[in-house]
Design a protein that fits this description.
This protein is elongated. The strands form eleven sheets. Strands 8, 9, 10, 11, 12, 13, 14, 15 and 16 form a nine-stranded mixed sheet that branches. Strands 17, 18, 19, 20, 21 and 23 form a six-stranded mixed sheet that branches. It is mainly beta and about 650 residues long. It has one helix and 52 strands. Helices cover about 0% and strands about 45% of the residues.
Length: about 650
């Protein structure tokens, strides 16, 4: 029934601390320090006597494709205006990562793609084109589903001509295009808001392109990374910024599945890739900038030495007493679930934000568009050291192409530490009471590097089995692997394995490093009602079976007190032992009673639900309560003489009560 499905989600949320992919098994290294050197001067064609020369490199992220042979140079795709043209995609080469020349000796034109019209002009033929005034690459990548030389470009696309009138504020789109000759030629622009078959928009905000003057709006400054998902498909991930309505200063991520002619993207929104790339809602998958500020210019790579994904970005805090910008990083174990660690600053990257020329905008910064790469690593991969290339200057004005070296110092995964006495029933948080097939929790420090619950990706290729690892975190109970539902640095929620009896010994393994062992008693039955904590009071996780709504404090929206004769569904764990490690099947249970205050009644219905570790108990509020005082009455369930505790170790500990009114 629908109410049970809704409440099942609430019960599982309770497991994650009372607050409401099979991960890889390798021993990942953790970052001890991440720093960059002082700026290094680069030589490149940035003015006469070179002809043509680059006016404003870099204008987006810069892509380095590794040498095709030991004697070949790096192929470099960047974004810049050239002296003989307008802004667009330029191609350079370098052998030493210090001196850059146009890649004409490799058969490339200095500029291989551009927009049809310059920033300051409009053309009625292209006024509805998504990239009328700007088309420049954020990333250029090999499509792994096609033969070598088939490249894709994720690019910044801008239209500055709402209604045919030119203005500086843009409507930004993230565009997608292909080249089949290793990036020498790319499709020409085509008129129309959706471009053409081979050059088209993939990310646009929920605000459609305006037809009149407007402030800056759009999904902008994207870079990209390609990864194979646990579902067996290759996806291109676009890291970008949302400008205008809905912007909250957080980096956004979207992805599109490769292996098809026309690639459509889905945006990350509230925990999954669930909103369409064109017009969909979007939210940030990571944490906020420490100390405040806006995130921008993000890049994802896979760090081969750490064995984790690496996100780097700019945090710019223009509202601080001393406006500053700096580079920050986070790591993740899976792009399917975007389980990024909290952002941390890269040492040596913090510099002032100042105004550009006569503009009051704080856009001058030594570090826009940081593009990390490591010599010897594959495209899109990094190591513990390498180079980062960036813009030193004004984001929309004069700038210099510069670089720094970066150094990551790694340390092995610190051993997790479990706290004695905090191995407990997953609903009551009371020590012990570990029933095979039901939920339990253990607390400590350093138990995980991220905080998350399982997702659909964790079940891929598992059939009817449950995931025994989340983000590299495993739980062993008497040397038996347990299904894991929730991980955080301080708490793990797991299912007690079948076969556990007597004393249960529990150990957590975080990315290959094992914790100490803690013990608690196991039991064939130790029922516990899942709680919902409202305003410091523990109410049972329960719904009104016939009329809907939650049981609890009536001053909280969606909750109300019970009355005599109401039919209520309770949710519990630990009622009886059940098979573990698999998705269960529903089965009825007889002999369950419910006690409210001093009144005990038989349950109308009780079963092991098809939800892992969860039992449903239906009962009718006794008629005696029609003449009893209104108030909160302790509630418990019982089977074969074993009752759930009325006082649970919530925060703070207290009785679990049923609110009754007339």
């Amino acid at each position: 029934m629908q109410s049970r499905r809704i409440q099942a989600a609430v019960c599982l949320a309770m497991l994650a601390g009372g607050l409401g992919v099979r991960a890889q098994q390798n021993n990942r290294l953790q970052i001890a320090s991440f720093s960059v050197s002082a700026d290094q001067t680069l030589t490149y064609p940035d003015g006469p006597p070179a002809s043509p020369f680059l006016n404003n490199l870099p204008d987006e992220h810069t892509t380095f494709l590794p040498p095709a042979s030991a004697s070949a140079p790096y192929l470099v795709f960047g974004a810049s205006r050239i002296s003989t043209g307008i802004g667009g995609a330029v191609v350079l080469q370098t052998s030493d990562l210090k001196t850059f020349t146009f890649a004409t000796s490799l058969g490339y034109q200095p500029q291989v793609m551009s927009s049809p019209v310059d920033f300051t002009n409009c053309n009625s033929k292209y006024d509805t084109e998504f990239d009328e005034n700007y088309a420049a690459p954020g990333s250029v990548l090999q499509d792994p589903t096609l033969p070598a030389g088939n490249l894709i470009m994720i690019f910044e696309a801008e239209n500055h001509c709402p209604g045919g009138a030119n203005q500086q504020p843009f409507y930004a789109t993230t565009g997608f295009t292909r080249s089949s000759d290793n990036g020498k030629t790319w499709p020409a622009p085509e008129n129309g808001p959706m471009g053409g078959a081979n050059r088209y928009p993939v990310l646009q905000p929920s605000t459609p392109p305006p037809t009149v003057a407007h402030p800056a709006i759009g999904d902008a400054t994207a870079s990209a990374y390609i990864d194979k998902s646990l579902d067996g498909n290759y996806y291109v991930y676009a890291v970008h910024s949302l400008v205008g309505p809905g912007a909250d200063g957080s980096i956004r991520v979207a992805r599109g599945q490769l292996g098809q002619t026309n690639v459509s993207f889905m945006k990350w929104y509230n925990g999954s890739f669930s909103e369409p790339g064109i017009g969909g809602m979007e939210s940030g998958p990571g944490s906020a900038c420490p100390g405040g500020g806006n995130q921008s210019h993000g890049q994802i790579s896979y760090n081969d030495d750490l064995g984790q994904y690496l996100l780097t970005l700019v945090c710019a805090n223009a509202s601080a007493a001393t406006p500053t910008g700096a580079w920050y990083y986070a790591t993740a174990t899976s792009l399917d679930i975007q389980d990024w660690t909290p952002l941390q600053m890269i040492a040596g990257s913090q510099f002032p934000l100042t105004a550009c020329g006569s503009s009051n905008a704080l856009q001058m910064f030594d570090g826009w568009y940081p593009s990390f790469m490591s010599p010897g690593a594959a495209a899109g991969h990094t190591k513990l050291s390498g180079s980062v290339f960036f813009l030193d200057g004004c984001e929309t004005g004069a700038r210099t192409f510069a670089s720094r070296t970066f150094t990551i110092t790694a340390q092995p995964q610190a051993a997790p530490k479990l706290t004695s006495g905090l191995l407990a029933n997953g609903a009551t948080y009371v020590s012990g009471g570990l029933v095979p097939g039901s939920w339990a929790q253990v607390q400590g420090t350093g138990l995980a590097n991220v905080t998350r619950i399982w997702t659909g990706f964790d079940f891929l290729n598992l059939g009817n089995n449950l995931p025994a690892s989340l983000s590299g975190v495993q739980v062993m109970v008497n040397n038996l692997p347990a299904a894991v539902y929730y991980v955080s640095p301080t708490q793990i929620n797991f299912q007690v394995p079948t076969g556990v009896s007597g004393t249960a010994s529990v150990q957590v393994i975080n990315n290959g490093t094992a914790s100490n062992t803690v013990t608690a008693t196991s039991s064939a039955s130790s029922p516990g009602l899942f709680p919902v904590v409202l305003k410091g009071v523990n109410y049972p996780a329960a719904v009104f079976a016939l009329s809907g709504g939650y049981v609890g404090d009536p001053s909280v929206a969606g909750f109300r007190a019970a009355q005599a004769g109401n039919h209520i569904e309770l949710y519990a764990t630990g009622l009886v032992a059940e098979p573990s490690g698999v998705i269960p099947t529903a089965s009825g249970i007889s002999g369950v009673t419910v006690t409210v205050g001093n009144v005990t009644v038989p349950a109308d219905f009780a079963e092991q639900t098809p939800y892992v570790g969860e039992f449903q108990i239906n009962f009718t509020v006794p008629q005696q309560f029609a003449s009893m005082p209104a108030g909160n009455y302790p509630i418990s369930i019982s089977l074969n003489g074993v009752s759930s505790p009325t006082t649970i170790n919530s925060n703070p500990p207290g009785q679990i009560v049923l609110p009754v009114t007339h």
